[in-house]
Amino acid sequence: MMGEKPKTPLNIQLIRHLQVIPKKGIEAHFSGKTKQIKIGLDEDFPVSKIQGSWLDRILPRDVIIALFSFGAATVANLIS
User: Fold this and answer.
1) Cβ contacts of residue 49 below 8 Å, gap of 6+?
2) Three-state SS for 56?
């Protein structure tokens, strides 16, 4: 597992769960802060990539949820 820059260590703050599941793979639940995570056996050939949206880089998660909730309520009121 690599962050946005393979040579920079990840900022993992808490490992909640780590388990090897036979015939399936590794299951891991962790938390921390980064912009992007790449997963694979080799740093040059990641198999999967998870990246936050551009909105995540600008606003905190609570503000994004509040904006979407407000927008949904406004649209619902305008329709009815």
Assistant:
1) 36, 37, 38, 39
2) helix
CA distance 13 to 10: 9
3-state secondary structure 13-45: EEEEEEEEECCCEEEEEEEECCCEEEECCECCE
Could you give the CA distance from residue 55 to residue 68 in angstroms, rounded to a whole number? Answer: 12
Each residue's pLDDT tens digit, 60-70 = 888 888 999 99
At 14-37, the pLDDT tens digits run: 778 888 888 888 888 877 777 777
Neighbours of 1 (CB within 10 A): 14
pTM of the model: 0.41
